[in-house]
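Narrative summary of target 7.
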Amino acid sequence: MKDMKVSLYRHRELAIEWREPASLKRSPNNPRQHSKDQIHKLRCSLREFGFTNPILVDDQGVVLCGHGRLEASIAEGIAKVPVIQISHLDEAQRRAYVIADNALAEKAGWSQELLRSELGGLIELGFDLELTGFDTVEIDSLLSFDDTGTDGGAAEDEEAVELPDEREPLSRLGDHWIIGRHHLLVADARDPESYAQRLPLITAPVSRIRKGKEIKLVISDSTGAERDETLVSLLREALAIREEVLSEPEMTIAENAASSGRCRKPMTRLFRLSWIAPEIVDAILAGEQLHAVTTRSLLTADLPLDWSDQKAALGF
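Modeled conformation, tokenized:
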């Protein structure tokens, strides 16, 4: 009991100090490795949220926890960082805590449903989801599938359907029914051979609208009803980024982003978008783009460089 009281007392004495990053020493025995991509994400996080998690050091100023935050702060040119000096641990405890701090955090799981709901809410607020630490592919996966790993649009607990008494089926695979002006083919839509027959081809642009875990299928008109000012603003921003990058030819996009206080990935996507085919730009300005063409699709799609391929990819 006495040892517990001493330990709690020491915890109450913990205080935040502000020190220069250069005064802190990196631990040569730190088993945690940080990739360039992770450091970049930490830099973007520091710009957006500020320094909210102090770096932990021992009495000699050696970093116990927060090596990534230290590297990010140095790269950002931050003059002073928040530090908590840990003095109540012995050598063995310090070495164990460096591992435990990372390992214990990794043991936590995610509620996929709540996470999907929060990400959906951030989308509605117009927040850059990559600042949450997830990559675009991870975000799309989270928004597209439910906790069981299946398409979130699938019906839940479908009601059982009573089948009629066993009898000779009236319709068979390959049958082509003509119902007034309509045609019904009994076949597997996933099998290319199903389309070998000469049937009237009916096409309509289709898009998926995500909201939480629900996915709806929308068959829409061929063009947008009116000009989308959000898309126009996106194109304007992309062109501004291109002019900025081309005006500094000696700098890479990553260096340009760092000097202007922006994140590299969104800036790179906008720069690529600035080279979109003129016909697509004209269609957006005239409000004649397909409904599938949204700010999200333009920023996340891996558009080809060739203008003809771009138009084909976007349905033009």
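The two ends are 75 Å apart (CA to CA).
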